[in-house]
Amino acid sequence: MTEPYGRVALIGLGLIASSMYWALKRAGFEGEVTGFARSSETRDIAREIGLCDRVCDTLTDAVTDADLVVLCVPVGVMGAVAAEMADALKPGATVTDVGSVKSEVIAAVAPHLPEGVHFVPGHPLAGTEHSGPRSGFAELFDNRWTLLVPVEGTDPDAIARLRSFWESLGANVEETGPDHHDLVLAVTSHAPHLIAYTMVGVADDLRRVTDGEVIKYSAAGFRDFTRIAASDPTMWRDVFLSNKEATLEILGRFTEELFALQRAIRQGDGDHLHAYFTRTRAIRRGIIEAGQDTDAPNFGRGAKK
Amino acid sequence: MTEPYGRVALIGLGLIASSMYWALKRAGFEGEVTGFARSSETRDIAREIGLCDRVCDTLTDAVTDADLVVLCVPVGVMGAVAAEMADALKPGATVTDVGSVKSEVIAAVAPHLPEGVHFVPGHPLAGTEHSGPRSGFAELFDNRWTLLVPVEGTDPDAIARLRSFWESLGANVEETGPDHHDLVLAVTSHAPHLIAYTMVGVADDLRRVTDGEVIKYSAAGFRDFTRIAASDPTMWRDVFLSNKEATLEILGRFTEELFALQRAIRQGDGDHLHAYFTRTRAIRRGIIEAGQDTDAPNFGRGAKK
């Protein structure tokens, strides 16, 4: 690869950072990658599995002399981490993040960064239900989208270098604004996660149906919800609290539609239901044609363990 | 296999019937399997792909001399089909069905069946988002549960034979009552499907976010909902209309929980959210341990097309 950066610091060593590291290795990245995690247990695991060229015990050590610093921590602590590392940043360095929310992260991080450091917020739209330093893999970003959300007046060259960096990890890259990002993500990610968490919580809480029954009979549809409802609780708590308005707006729309469908069920309006269920098939086809999901039945998961 | 039946008639040649046929072949079933579908196009496809030993042009032909008749039609037409075939049923034959709802199906079918015919309602909890005669495959029922819902006074031998039949197709078999079945399925299948349909419909209908964006960025969570929201519209319309009370009860519980979580978001109650999201992880683990889903990230679907 052409190297947009000589030294990269990954801050927070969970699913995204560890996948970035393995994707960098796969791309033949020749610079140095430092890593830092707040938890000493996470740092120990990283050292044990060879995650990062050098795992640092302090944030300052990790970011010193880095050309690119990637904040891979929950969005609720981005601001505090930015404040803590600000003095150690190299002039001319680029700081980016991978947070699922952009407006609040920009407001929390930008004020702490010194003049001469480029801040280019980002968000790779990729993940799994697993978390932690052992969960990463090099293919995570392949054919997925990374959105860059640069603030006005950002050096175009800093944006171009970050774009080329993400492309080298396998991602497609696009730019958008923070408010639009947060609304699009509320639809494609935040509301679906909250709804999945809710449905799984309801099933867990019913007196008349046991957890054992829910588990045994989950292949009838329910299990599809449990994957995203197994995602990292801290990350998701922060996402909902940081993207409050857009998430609540979409949930409001969702509730309105759900009430309309409940009413159609109660009134026996089969035509309304049939028309609605026919319309929703088209989006699935679009997703498959765009290479964003598999057409194999049941996501291609094996029928047997 | 030990043959519980000499001749089996599959009525309605969609995903379930076609999977049953291929599973019977895999099991080395030595009897004859007849098939019937209302649509001549479906019958033509069945003949073309070798689905069923004999595809019949009339319902009467298909069920004549059958030892087991399996109704694989949408639950809304089960009663009419039962009425139409009643006179052609062989004394001592067993009639079963694969409908996703049991109380209404039993009420619709049972009155039409003549004395001397055993009616043992059933429901294989297995499926995919695909439908039609080409969508079946032999492994569909492997390690999945089939619920038998026999009415009081049914000949135990007729139940035992049907159990052994389903086991030969790869399924685990359990018995339950119709009301409990319908409640459990409302939780594990019907409510999740309606919620998925709703979320996909909302995404499709937003003015400020394009379908193109929803599709491109669907890997952030949304795409998990689109699979079950691509299921057969006629089948699902009938399910909701036939399992009205239980589905509306679960959706009521769901809405209540969703409102509580929306309020926690609005009020910034991170502890409530975190606790809720932690609890829902356990069910996912249970499902994986029970062999009802894969632990591979993203259901194991390939990262690349």
Topology:
Two copies of one chain form a homodimer.
Chain A: E1 7-11, H1 15-26, E2 32-36, H2 40-49, E3 54-55, H3 59-63, E4 68-71, H4 78-85, E5 94-97, H5 103-109, E6 118-119, E7 122-124, E8 145-148, H6 156-168, E9 172-175, H7 178-205, H8 211-216, H9 223-228, H10 233-242, H11 244-267, H12 270-289
Parallel strand pairs in A: 1-2, 1-4, 2-3, 4-5, 5-6, 8-9
Antiparallel strand pairs in A: 7-8
Helix pairs in contact in A: 4-5, 7-11
Pathway (chains A, B): Amino-acid biosynthesis; L-tyrosine biosynthesis; (4-hydroxyphenyl)pyruvate from prephenate (NAD(+) route): step 1/1
Domain Prephenate/arogenate dehydrogenase (chains A, B): 6-295
Family (chains A, B): Belongs to the prephenate/arogenate dehydrogenase family.
Description:
Two copies of one chain form a homodimer. By secondary structure, chain A is α/β, with parallel strands linked by helices. Chain A has helices at residues 15-26, 40-49, 59-63, 78-85, 103-109, 156-168, 178-205, 211-216, 223-228, 233-242, 244-267, 270-289; strands at 7-11, 32-36, 54-55, 68-71, 94-97, 118-119, 122-124, 145-148, 172-175. Chain A folds into two domains: 7-176, 3-Layer(aba) Sandwich (Rossmann fold); 180-268, Orthogonal Bundle (6-phosphogluconate dehydrogenase C-terminal fold). In chain A, the strands form two sheets. In chain A, strands 3-2-1-4-5-6 form a six-stranded parallel beta sheet. In chain A, strands 7-8-9 form a three-stranded mixed beta sheet, with helices on one face. The longest helix of chain A is centred in the middle third of the chain and has 28 residues, at 178-205. The interface between A and B is large, with 115 and 115 residues. Chains A, B: Keywords: Amino-acid biosynthesis, Aromatic amino acid biosynthesis, Membrane, NAD, Oxidoreductase, Transmembrane, Transmembrane helix, Tyrosine biosynthesis.
